[in-house]
Specification:
Its cofactor is Zn(2+). There is one protein chain. This protein is α/β, with parallel strands linked by helices and about 350 residues long. About 25% of the residues lie in helices and about 25% in strands. The chain folds into 2 domains: about 210 residues, Alpha-Beta Complex (Quinone Oxidoreductase, Chain A, domain 1); about 130 residues, NAD(P)-binding Rossmann-like Domain (Rossmann fold), CATH 3.40.50. Strands 3, 4, 5, 8, 9, 16 and 17 form a 7-stranded mixed β-sheet that branches. It has a 6-stranded parallel β-sheet with strand order 12-11-10-13-14-15. A hairpin with an 8-residue loop joins β1 and β2. The chain starts with a strand and ends with a strand. The protein binds zinc ion (2 copies). The site of one zinc ion has 9 residues, from α2. One zinc ion binds next to α2.
Length: about 350
């Protein structure tokens, strides 16, 4: 076992504190990664505060991890010491079910193993990236291209793939009108990726306060959802809507923005059930869908796509002792657009 530094939540109601945790020995198929940067995802906060259900404490979160390989197991063929790598939202899956066999480990029928707060296949509770080191099976490690700035690469492992996967699946590209609801960590990546894919991108945000950023990231239009005229002006417009907002919306009103065969995809999730009149979907043969991160192969494809197109998240680098303040700022949407922890400060 390897004892490493980390920042952990002692309970659902206390601030995160510096601590040490144990990492497993590097097994035959494992890679030891010295973590350089860890992104701060809204899910981290939901998890440690038990918004999504009870967890085991102390808990280290963080599933946007980049770093350097410092040791490999005897059977590792995909990575070598010195490689620049990433780890996203999952670190294992059953590898046998039909979804795993199809390369969609995120939809593992036995449940994928989350990077934190999950029971690993060996029965231990996984601990995330707010830490100096992590040991991960080589099959769940990604290669981070040199063209992506190191500290900016981290948020691609969750915010990047969570938006790339539905955009790719529902064919965002030339001739397609895509709307992105919400301009936070996920939303700003959806704008950059969809426009790089060639789609015509519109941002729907509560106010116009981030309009200049949205247009700079590649959107051609930007509307305030606080303005009723927006819903009249944009009725029957979009082929695809990526909803990154985790607050509940008036879905009857929003899905009317979809044109014929348009698809509404949720990647943000309110904690409570939502309600909608099914009649709202009849017109224009609309679909209401969800999407969860991406498979390992697709995550590599996303990283390579971002390198090729010069896309990277907008980040604000923080030291580990700023994490609790950063959480408060994420909850106020006061971040442009993703906090990244410099783990050298742990
Ligand atoms: Zn996340
Ligand atoms: Zn599976």
């Amino acid at each position: 076992m390897l004892t490493v530094k980390a920042y952990a939540a002692p309970s659902a109601t206390e601030p995160l504190v510096p601590t040490t945790i144990e990492r497993r020995d590097v097994g035959a198929n494992d890679v030891l990664i010295a973590i350089a940067y860890a992104g701060v995802c809204h899910s981290d906060i939901h998890t440690v505060r038990e918004d999504w259900g009870p967890i085991t404490f102390p808990q280290v979160v963080g599933h946007e991890i980049v770093g350097e390989v410092t040791a490999v197991g005897g059977d590792v063929t995909k990575f070598a010491v010195g490689d620049r790598v990433g780890v996203g939202c999952m670190v294992n899956s059953c590898r046998e079910c039909e979804n795993c066999a199809a390369g969609m480990e995120q939809y593992c029928l036995a449940g994928n193993t989350g990077t934190y707060a999950s029971v690993d296949r060996d029965g231990t509770i996984t601990q995330g990236g707010y830490s100096t080191h992590v040991v991960v099976d080589q099959d769940f490690v990604l290669r981070v291209p040199e063209a992506i700035p190191y500290e900016a690469a981290a948020p691609l492992l969750c915010a990047g793939i969570t938006t790339y996967s539905p955009l790719a699946h529902w064919n965002a590209g030339p001739g397609k009108r895509v709307a992105v609801v919400g301009m936070g960590g996920l939303g700003h990546m959806a704008v950059k990726i969809a426009s790089a894919m060639g789609a015509e991108v519109t941002v729907l945000s509560q106010t116009l306060s981030k309009k200049d950023d949205g247009l700079a990231f590649g959107a051609t239009d930007y509307y305030a959802t606080s303005d009723k005229e927006t819903f009249k002006a944009l009725r029957n417009t979009f082929d695809l809507v990526i909803n990154t907002v985790s607050a509940s919306l008036d879905f009857d009103r929003y899905v009317k923005l979809l044109r014929l065969d348009g698809v509404w995809v949720n990647v943000g999730a309110p904690a409570d059930p939502v309600s909608m009149r099914v009649f709202s979907l009849f017109a224009n043969r609309r679909s209401f869908a969800g999407s969860n991160i991406g498979g390992i192969a697709e995550t590599q494809e996303m990283l390579d796509f971002c390198a090729e197109h010069g896309i990277a998240p907008e980040t604000e680098l923080i030291s580990a002792d700023e994490i609790n303040d950063a959480y408060e700022r994420v909850l106020r949407s006061d971040v442009r657009y993703r906090f990244v922890i410099d783990t050298a400060t742990l």
